[in-house]
Design a protein that fits this description.
It is built from three helices and two strands; from the N terminus they run H-H-E-E-H. It is mostly helical and 171 residues long.
């Protein structure tokens, strides 16, 4: 009984084949192994080719980024130069404005001086227009740079300042 069971399990397991069957099966398996090995070599070749392609693409990407950086740098440089030009223009305008303000300050100062001189002269004239008491002997009444005997004495602007002024003191 044990013999029948053993034979049955050998048949079901496929161990009961003849040597010819075994040789045929080994050849088939060797053929499959060769095909698989060829497939493995082909896969390795494809893998190497893909790695090479990835390296090429990475280099291309780096070059593209570098080229874009160069283009962006050139654009930035031109923008910087443009802004420098605008800054120079604005500095020139600012200097012109500062000069105008200085000129206006000078003219206003000169005008203010003349207005004060005219006010002093008017005050002198007003004093002269008042009824006068007779002065003792040859005494002179002096009021803010004016003499009643000699008439108005307007403060004169020095010649070197008159030449630089556009407006002259009233006479």
């Amino acid at each position: 009984m044990d013999y029948k069971k053993l034979r049955l399990s050998i048949r079901t397991a496929g161990l009961g084949k003849t040597s010819e069957h075994w040789r045929q099966e080994i050849k088939e398996e060797m053929s499959k192994a060769n095909v698989m090995q060829g497939s493995l070599v082909e896969s390795q070749n494809v893998k190497v080719a893909l790695k090479t392609r990835v390296s090429e693409l990475e280099r291309s990407l780096h070059q593209y980024r570098s080229r874009n950086s160069v283009i962006e740098l050139k654009a930035s440089r031109s923008k910087i130069e443009e802004l420098k030009g605008k800054i120079e223009e604005l500095e020139t305008v600012l200097q012109n404005c500062e000069l105008r303000v200085r000129d206006r300050d000078y003219v206003m100062g000169a005008t203010l001086t003349q207005v004060r001189e005219v006010a002093d002269h008017l005050q002198t004239l007003a004093v002269q227009a008042l009824p006068q008491k007779t002065p003792k002997h040859n005494e002179t009444h002096i009021h803010k740079g004016c003499s009643l005997k000699s008439g108005p004495n307007i403060r004169q602007v020095p010649r070197h300042r008159q030449a630089s002024r556009q407006v002259q003191a009233p006479t």
